[in-house]
From TrEMBL:
Annotated protein name in UniProt: TPR-like protein
Protein species of origin: Hyaloscypha hepaticicola
Pfam families: TPR_10, TPR_12
UniProt cross-references to InterPro entries, sorted A to Z: NLR-like, TPR-like_helical_dom_sf
Length: 246
């Protein structure tokens, strides 16, 4: 068991370092071991965890068919053998939803995210982080399908909840800022540039404050605001953003 634990740690280190091929190879070994080991098999949580980790790695590598096949097997086993707390089933379904979204099967992803949102709300509460995560995924699926009014409604709800439950006197929570950026993206898709600009300006300020000027999230926020200024015809503001460090 110690050996398999160390393999899991090594796989996570490899994944964190960007060595996805090494992580995939190690997790394949773990999945094979757990599935064939008589003390584990298809009914053991360690098997499910390794299957789901491997599915996520396959998704990140663009191997979507293999990822979907594996996570569906994991989900079937969880539904068959898991009792009591079903948060693991929600995690598994969330991974499947992300795979479907990446495969541009947006309607299937949307329907699954709606199911996850309801299940998570019933199990964990309507304002639990996992429920809000499912709602954010649902809004992304709505945007991808061009259902922008529906996306806006969900984005606004998530942002309002996070402002109320996560923010404090020290400033906005990183997750709140992310949700504001999501809502700005919906406004941009609706060509509501002034509303997008207001949010994106705030997002850039908050990310610069909390993450620094050169963090990838800050650079992305600056790029998105510059794109909005371009649509507004504010050429000087675009140039200033691209030339500035903040």
């Amino acid at each position: 068991m110690l050996t398999t634990t160390l393999r899991g740690v090594l796989a996570n280190v490899s994944l964190g370092a960007g060595h996805t091929e090494d992580a995939e190879r190690i997790y394949r070994q773990l999945v094979d071991f757990f599935e064939q080991d008589p003390d584990h098999g298809e009914a053991h949580p360690d098997t499910w965890a390794s299957q789901q980790h491997l599915a996520e790695i396959l998704r990140q590598s663009g191997k979507l068919r293999a990822a979907e096949k594996l996570v569906r097997r994991c989900l079937a086993n969880r539904r068959k053998f898991e009792v009591g707390n079903n948060s693991g089933i929600l995690d598994c379904k969330s991974t499947l939803g992300s795979i479907l979204f990446d495969a541009e099967r947006f309607e299937e992803a949307r329907e699954l995210f709606m199911e996850i949102r309801q299940d998570s709300s019933n199990l964990l509460g309507p304002e639990h982080p996992q429920t809000l995560f499912a709602m954010s995924n649902l809004a992304c699926a709505y945007r991808a399908e061009g259902l922008l009014s529906e996306a806006e409604d969900v984005d606004v709800t998530v942002l309002d909840i996070k402002k109320r439950t996560l923010d404090n006197q020290d400033g906005a929570h990183f997750s709140t800022v992310t949700s504001a950026a999501n809502l700005a993206s919906t406004y941009s898709c609706q060509n509501r540039w002034d509303e997008a600009e207001k949010l994106e300006t705030w997002v850039l300020r908050e990310r610069t404050r909390s993450l620094g000027e050169l963090h990838p999230a800050t650079l992305l926020a600056r790029k998105q605001l510059a794109e909005t200024h371009r649509h507004q015809g504010k050429a000087e503001d675009v140039q200033a953003l691209l030339e500035s460090k903040c």
